[in-house]
Every structure is written in C-alpha cells, then in structure tokens.
Design goal:
UDP-n-acetylglucosamine1-carboxyvinyl-transferase, Chain, 2 domains, four-stranded mixed β-sheet, 21 strands
C-alpha cells in the first residue's frame, strides 16, 4: 500500500532560514504546514522578511544583510527550531533589536549552549528571564566571526543554528564541537547549505564555514521521516505492507534508519531509489539498540515494544529528556499505566513483553507521545488521549490520517 506523509519539519525549518538569508526569492515546494513551521514562517515575517504562501509552496524573499525590520517581537510558540534558529539569524543582522519568546513548554527547554556561543562571538544578547532560556533579546550589530566552541550534546539544533549563520558573518566561522547528538540532522544541514550555495568543510571536531552568503533556490522538501516512522511501525505491528514514496536511498533524514531497527526486530524492509517499504511478518523480536542519532523515533519504538517476544532496550537517548517533555519518563509512565514492566536509567529504557490494557495516554503536550501510542493502539483498541490536538505541532491531520490507514488495512 502506498502511504504519503507530509513534508519534513526539519527540512522545512532549515529551508525557511536559508531562503531568508539568501539574496532574492526562493521557492520551497511541498513544505510541511504545521504549527511549528507556521510559527517559523510567522517569525520570519515579524522580522521583516517577505513570506508568501501558495497552494503547495512558500515563496521567501531573502535579505543577506539581516532582518529588514528594525525591531520585532517574535513568538516562537512550541518550536525548538524557531527558538534556536531565529535568534541566530537576527544576530547576523547589522542593526535592530529583536525579542524572542515562546510557549511555557518551550521556555523550559534549554538554549544556553547556543546563546553562550553567540555571546562568545560578540553578540549583544540578554536573557530576559531565566538564564539559558527564552525569553531573550538580541541587539544586532553584525557578527565578525572567527573561532568558537560549542557543546551540542543536548541538541544538534545549536550546531545547525551556528552553521547556517556562518556565511552571514564577516570572516566565517570555525566551530569546534565538544559533544554532539543526532548527527544525521547535522548532515541534513550541511547538504541543504550546499543546495543554497555554501560548502562547509570539517577538520576533525571543527566545522569550517566560509563567509559570502547564500544564493536563492527552488527547493523541494522531502517527506518527513519521523512521521513515516509511525507508518512503518504500524505496518510491522499489524502485519501489513506500507510504502512511503519520496524517502529512498538518497534521503537526507537520518530518521529513515528507524526501518533498520524494525528489520532487526523481524520486519521485511526494502529501501529503494525513491521509496521505502516495510512489511510486517507477524512477529517482532526483542532488541537492544542505540538510538542516539534517531532519538525522535524512540517513543515510536517504546510504544510498540510490549508486542515484541523479548525485552526491548533503548540506549543513549538522554537528550529526549529535554524535548517537548521528558520523553523517557513519559514513555515509562504510559507503559506502566498499561500494565507493562519498565525500567529506566539516565539515558536508557528497557521494556518487557506484555499485553497492554487500554488507558488514556498522558501526552504531556508532546506530539510524539500521542502519535507513537496511537500506533500501538492498533493492537490495543480503546486507547484514548488526554490531549489529542497536540499533534498539530508537526502533523495536524494525524488522527484522520491514521484512521484512514486503519480502515484501508482493515485492522
């Protein structure tokens, strides 16, 4: 069965930044339309960039000199990409005062590694509340560039923000990274920067970003691999076949590697040039897997883990504790409520086989909790959610999409 999923949130956010930083108009085709990406686009508009939406594209008029608006108050909503990327974009401007705030949930998430690096580069940046968190104010006066050290062990978004800002500095950047998670997301950034005319080189743990700016592009956004994980997990769990077009051997997103976890568990997997297919074989094996580089798919695996024939242990995912919620704790809470035995540590979770009972899932305002446990609900009729609308962050039509999938599969 062919199953189409929406555009990638990660690719859409990066494309919006790069288009805003380029000279001229860029066209972003088949972008994700969700609360996060709308918040990012509205943030660009508040900063004075030209952003126009047509039926299946965003048209962005860039400004290499920085935000056209001399001042702005930007609401980043729940979006980590907006809260990390937009202040860096504003800092590269040559004049202006820009204040960034966000939802209570986003205010709890850290930005300190990024803001510390920007300050080290001479950016006039103040935290208006708790140090290392939003709200914050940037007084732009250009960035000379040079060498800077960054700890990206909590989020690769900190590194992406600096990488994408580098070409807007006078001298470029040399970013020495002391820790990093979700490396495939950094690879997305580097590939997309090339698509907008900038080549980054790497010397060991140092990324070298040249000055010079970006050129506009006509850019097609590929389907969201994190969203596709729900489709692939559902196929493996239900013993059905799902083919997602647009995600193949040359896909940018590392989260497509989730299908290799499903392969280890017994599903049949085929990654072709332009599509990926997963077929459930009627059984799932227990597995121990390091998900450091694909941690957004950790809840997907955790939710279906009880249906494996042995324990499922997920390791090296501490950074999921500082996402929209503490995802390790949230997964453990919901699985225990379903009657499943679970153990957790600082950066791991181990889930025993069992028969989950239907409960109301505590989403904690986190879209991935709702979507992951909806997948497991294929085998657990009666599962409900305390906050089903939280999926609007990245997949507004998810529940209707998934109900249609269930009907087409007759499960």
């Amino acid at each position: 069965m062919i199953v189409a999923v929406p555009g990638s949130k990660s690719v859409t956010a990066r494309a919006l930044f790069l288009a805003a930083a380029a000279g001229g108009e860029s066209v972003l085709r088949r972008p994700l339309l969700s609360d996060d990406t709308d918040g990012f686009a509205q943030g660009l508009a508040a900063l004075g960039y030209g952003v126009r939406r047509t039926d299946d594209a965003w048209h962005v008029t860039g400004s290499p000199e920085g935000p056209p608006a001399p001042a702005a108050d930007v609401d980043c909503r729940d979006a980590g990409t907006a809260a990390r990327f937009l202040p860096a974009l504003a800092a590269a401007g040559h004049r202006g005062v820009y204040r960034f705030d966000a939802s209570a949930q986003m205010r709890r998430r850290p930005v300190a590694p990024l803001t510390g690096a920007l300050r080290a580069l001479g950016v006039d940046l103040t935290h208006d509340g708790a140090e290392g968190h939003l709200p914050l104010t940037v007084r732009a006066a250009g960035v000379k560039g040079g060498e800077v050290e960054l700890d990206a062990s909590l989020s690769s978004q900190f590194l992406t923000a600096l990488l994408m800002t580098g070409p807007l500095t006078a001298d470029g950047l040399r970013i020495r990274v002391t820790g990093i998670v979700s490396v495939p997301y950094v690879e997305i950034t580097l590939a997309m920067m090339r698509g907008f005319g900038v080549d980054v080189t790497r010397e060991g743990d140092t990324f070298v970003v040249p000055p010079g700016g970006y050129r506009p592009a006509d850019y097609a956004v590929e389907p969201d691999a994190s969203a596709a994980s729900y489709v692939f997990a559902a196929a493996a769990l239900a013993g059905r076949t799902a083919t997602v077009p647009g995600l193949g051997q040359d896909a940018l997103q590392g989260d497509l590697q989730f299908v290799e976890v499903l392969r280890q568990m017994g599903a049949d997997v085929e990654i072709g040039p332009d599509a990926t297919t997963v077929t459930g074989t009627g059984r799932l094996s227990g597995v121990t897997v390091n998900m450091r580089d694909i941690s957004d798919t950790m809840p997907t695996l955790a939710a279906i883990a009880p249906y494996a024939d042995g324990p499922v242990r997920i390791e090296d995912v501490y950074n999921t504790r500082v996402k929209e919620c503490d995802r390790l704790d949230a997964c453990a809470e919901n699985l225990r409520a379903q009657g499943i035995r679970v153990e957790t540590g600082r950066e791991w979770i181990e889930i025993q086989p069992g028969t989950p009972r239907p409960v109301e899932i505590a989403c904690r305002g986190d879209h991935r909790m709702a979507m992951s446990f909806a997948v497991a609900g294929l085998r657990n009729p009666g599962t409900t959610f305390d906050d089903p609308s939280c999926v609007k962050k990245t997949f507004p039509g998810f529940h209707e999409f998934f109900a249609d999938l269930r009907a087409r599969w007759d499960v």
